[in-house]
Input
Amino acid sequence: MKTDGINVLLVDDDPGVLQLLSIRLNALGFNVSCADGGESALKKLGSERVNIVISDLRMDGMNGIELFENIQQHYPSIPVIVLTAHGSIKEAVSATQKGVFSFLTKPVDKDELLSSIQQALRLSDHDTTPETKTSKIITCSANMLQLLEQAKLLAQSDINILIRGESGTGKELLASTLQAFSPRADKPFIAINCSAIPADLLESELFGHVKGAFTGASRDNKGLFASADGGTVFLDEIGDMPAQLQVKLLRVLQEQKIRPVGSHDDIAINVRVLSATHQNLETAITDGKFREDLYYRLNVASLNLPALRDRVADIQLLARHFLNCIAQRNGGVCKKFSPAALEALMAYHWPGNIRQLNNVVEQTAALAPSPIIGEAQILATLPQVKASPVDNLSLTEARKNFEREYLQKLLFQTKGNVSDAARHAGRNRSDFHKLIKKHQLDPDVQRSAKRAGK
Output
C-alpha cells in the first residue's frame, strides 16, 4: 500500500508518545499531524484533511472513546484506532463494539500498527493503490493481490482470457477489472450469462438479427457484440453455450466478423472476448460437449479465482464493506460486527463464496435488533455444515483438501505463528514450513486476518 498522501492524526496527552509515533509513521511515508487531546483533535479535523485517527484511550478531559464518538457522529468515514497502556479484554470488546476499528496495547508493535492502519484504510477506501481505486476488488490476501498483478499485465495485451472459479467468487468483477486496466477502458464492457438465455435466443442476443428474421422480430437488433465494438464482451458460463452456437462463436473469434440472424452480410467488429466458467472444460471436451478449437481460442491465457475459504483475510473486509453498502443504500447508521461474530464468519467454509457472504450480511443486518451484530445471529443465519461430496475425489485429493484446511485453520488460530502451529500439529518447524509451502499458504495473511477479527 502506498503511504504518501495519507494523513494520520495522532492524539495523545503524552508528548513523548506523540514524538515517538510521529517519527515511526513519518519514516513509513505517512503525513502526520499531532493533537495533545480530544478537543484539539476535533479542531484539527475541522480544518485539516485526515484519513485516519490514532488516539490514546485515557487522556485528561475528553478520553479516546468520547473522541471516537464525536468523530463517528461528524466524520463517520474516518476510521479510528485506539491505543492504551491499560488494556483489558473488557475495554477492547467495548471499544470494538462501539465501532473503533482496532484496539492496540502500548508499547505498540510497529508492524501491528502498520497492519491495522493498512486494513483500516482499505476498509474506508483510502487505499491509493491502483487495484483498489480501479478494480473495486476488496482484498488484502496474498493470493488475490498476486492475481491482480497478473490481471494488470494481461490486460495490456489484447488476448482472450478465460477466468475460472467457483460460483460466487466474482468472475464478472475480475472481467471488469481486466477491462478497467486495459487500453479499452473507456469503451463498452458488455456481460452476458450464456446459461441464463434460452438457446434459441442466444444467437440473436449475441450477434443481432434483422427485421423479419423470425416470428416477433419486428425491428433490427444490432446484438451485444456490435454494441461492444471497440470494447470488451464478457461471456459468463461459457461452458453452457449450445454446440451449434459454439461453431458460430469460433468463426467470430477467427474473423472478427458477425452475421446477424436473417442477414446475408457480415459486419466487421473489434472486440476483446473474456469468458468464464465454473465447469471443467477439459472434461467437457472429452465428453464431446465443448469444442476443443473454441477452447484454445478463448483460453489464450487463464486466471484462476480462489474460493473465499482460501481468502480468509478478506472475509472481514468484505463483510464490513457489505455493511457499509447497506447503510449507504438505506441512509441509516452502519451496523458493526462483534469480534466473536467476525470470528464465526472467518471460521465458516463458504461454499457459496462472496455471493453467499453478501446474502448472510444482508440477512443478519436486516434482523439485528441492535447496532451490533453478534455471534449468535451469524451462527443462526449460516446453513448447517454438510459433508462434502467425495464421489468424484480420489483418496489423495480428499487427504490434500483436508490437510490444507487443517493447516489454514491452525495458522488462523495461532495468529500465523509458525512455531506455535507446528507445536500444535506435532511437527517440527522445518517440516511444518514445508507443509505450508506445499499448500501455498501465507502465515502473514492468517496473522492479519486474526488481528482484524479482534
